[in-house]
Design a protein that fits this description.
It is built from two helices and no strands. The protein is mainly alpha-helical. 87% of the residues lie in helices and 0% in strands.
């Protein structure tokens, strides 16, 4: 339990930590590569959102079909 409590102090990074992360990224990738990197991240997030929506639609469709099938079975004598 003591180990878990000691990790609770590490929470999310604050302002200075984000600045340090941005500075390291800038040094690693350079100023010209950052827009390309962010574009790629944005496209990836867009694809993730599309995939999630497609999964939700497929789940809703299968649930509706299962409910219809159950209703047909219960209506039959």
């Amino acid at each position: 339990m003591l180990i878990f409590n000691s990790f609770a102090f590490f929470g999310l990074p604050g302002g200075s930590e984000w600045f340090l992360v941005f500075l390291v990224i800038l040094l690693l990738f350079g100023g010209a590569k950052i827009p390309q990197l962010m574009r790629g991240v944005g496209r990836g997030m867009g694809e993730l959102q599309k995939g999630l929506e497609e999964g939700k639609r497929a789940l809703n469709t299968s649930v509706a079909e299962a409910e219809e099938e159950a209703a047909k079975k219960s209506a039959q004598p």
